[in-house]
Amino acid sequence: MKKFALIGQPLSHSLSPSIHAAAYHDLQLHGHYDLLETATEQVEGVIELVRTGEIDGLNVTIPHKVTVMPFLDAIDEDANAIGAVNTIKKVGDQVIGYNTDAQGFKESLLERLHIKTVRQQRILVIGAGGAARAIVHTLGKDGAVLTIVNRTISKAEELAGMYPFDVTHLTIEAAEMILNQFDIVINTTSVGMSSFTNKSPIKLDRLASSTLVCDLIYNPLETILLKEAKNRGNATLNGVGMLVNQAALAIEIWTGKKPNRKLMEETLVREVRN
C-alpha cells in the first residue's frame, strides 16, 4: 500500500484525508493518507521517512512550509521563489519540494473567470503572509497588475519589494477608497474563518459591480466577505477550488495520475456542510 501523509500542527480541522481517499478510490490506487501532527523538532525525522521510502508522498501545512526546506535535497523553481513547500516526493535519490498552492489557486481563478491568463487584470491582494506570497508570485508572473494591502503596512511594503515585477502596496483604508479600480479582490487572511466568522477584511462600499471577490477560506463555504459581495450582485470564489486543485496536483506529482477533481470537490463540500 502506498502511504501519503500531511504534516503540520494542529491538524484536527483538516479535511484532506476525505478528499484524498475519494481520489485514490476513483483511481483504484491502493493508498492511504494520514495526518501526522508534527512538532518543529520532529520535521527532519519525518523527511527521513520519505528518504527511506516509508512515506511515498508528503503534504506540508502550517507551520512547516518553510521549516521543511533546509532538509530537502532540491526545491522546484516556484517553491523556491515563493519560499514555501507544501508537497514533497523522493525522485531517484533526492527528496524534492514543490508548491502546488499557488498553481492550485490560479487554476481555480482562471476557471471561474473563463479566461486563460490574468495578464493586465488589476488585482487587490489582502494580506501579506505565506498565502499572499504564493498568490502574488504566481499571478504576477502571469502579468497581473498587483496591489497588496495589510493591516500592518510595513509587511505589505516588504512583500511588495520581493518581486522582480512591479507590485504596489497600500493601507486598507486607501484601498477601500479606490476599490472600484480593481478587477479582482482576493482575501488571503484568516478573517472570516473560525472565531472571525462575523468579520470582513475590507469594506466593499466602493466595489465595482464587475469585480470578482475571492476568499481563500473554504470553511465556511461563504464568508462574510463573500456574502456581502454576493448581496451586491458580484461574482464570488471561495477556497474550495484552491484546496482541491493543490491536492490534485500533489497526487499527480506523487503518482503521475490525474485524479477526478469534480469528485474531490463534491467530497470536500459535503464534508464542510456536515
Describe this protein's structure.
By secondary structure, the chain is α/β, with parallel strands linked by helices. It folds into two domains: about 1-95 and about 240-270, Leucine Dehydrogenase, chain A, domain 1 (Rossmann fold), CATH 3.40.50; about 100-235, NAD(P)-binding Rossmann-like Domain (Rossmann fold, 3-Layer(aba) Sandwich), CATH 3.40.50. The protein is about 40% helix and about 20% strand. The chain is built from ten helices and twelve strands. The strands form two sheets. Strands 2-1-3-5-6-4 form a six-stranded mixed beta sheet, sandwiched between helices. It has a six-stranded parallel beta sheet with strand order 9-8-7-10-11-12, with helices on both faces. Strand 7 (about 120-125), helix 5 (about 130-140) and strand 8 form a beta-alpha-beta unit. Helix 1 crosses helix 9 and helix 4 (about 100-115) packs across helix 9 (about 240-255). The longest helix has 16 residues, at about 240-255. The radius of gyration is 19 Å and the shape is globular. The mean pLDDT is about 95.
Give a short overview.
With 274 residues, the protein is an alpha/beta fold.
